[in-house]
Amino acid sequence: MEFTLFTLLNGVSYGLLLFMLSSGLTLIFSMMGVLNFAHASFYMLGAYIAYSISSWLGFWPALILAPLVVGVAGALVERYGLRPLHKFGHIPELLFTFGLSYLMVELVQLIWGRAAVPYPIPRELDRPLFTLFATSFPMYRGFMMLVALAMLAGIWLVLTRSRIGLVIQAALTHPDAVEALGHNVPRIFMWVFGGGCALAGLAGVIGGNAFVTEPGMAGTVGSIIFVVVVVGGMGSLAGAFVASILIGVLQTFAVALDYSMMSLLNWAGANITPTTPGYSLLKLTIAQSAAILPFVLLVLILIFRPKGLMGTRE
Known about the structure:
The chain is mostly helical. Helices cover 70% and strands 3% of the residues. Strands 1-2 form a two-stranded antiparallel ribbon. The chain is globular, with a radius of gyration of 21 Å. The protein starts with a helix and ends in a 10-residue tail after the last helix.
């Protein structure tokens, strides 16, 4: 019970962090049709900016200011980088964001260096939230889960219950009518892109000190984000939430399970030795293969349900 409960909580907290990352990418793709390959780089940028701000003003101002800075940077990228490319189709957009991801990594290394920076958890959150079976659950992970759920509720309210959300959705399907009503559609899309980048920046503020803030952090989570988006269904926010929790729990349980096919066969009475054919494959543990499990899930989804768990095929 102790192992199951705490592994499940850790998996859900990691899954909610993945959702914080994938929600911005899903929002940008569903509203603009742009698959932003630099999205994980905005996550990294949010962590580094939060580190700098927290060094001067503390963590709580960084929690507010860093996503705003990243959001403005994302809006400028859309206005002066992506907008001139929209008329040429999706391939130039993909190439631009792909190159931008490398440029942002190099800029981060020039400004903050190649080594990891000391971005600590705030002192008031660096203690146990509760203790069960002699095992404590960190308060910061609980805070991470709370922020992710609040962000989910905020996105849903803005898109479905506010005038801004209605204008954004109308601009997606009927841009000419929205322009006729006096709204600037390119500016709407610019702030949608900036808002998606701000969500990635918020994930960087929260995840940067929970894990490690270093230049390779974008590459670490970048591929997983696209797995989440495809598994959940391209453009589906609800699908991204379900896929994030599923992949987070799957990976966390897999890392904690040190079992292999060899141990299972030996338990059943087989005598597996180094001379047994396929020995190297049989001794591979679930924990060792945890990193590839999301990609195995991705392949299965693409084979049996190409539109994703909650996506719509168009």
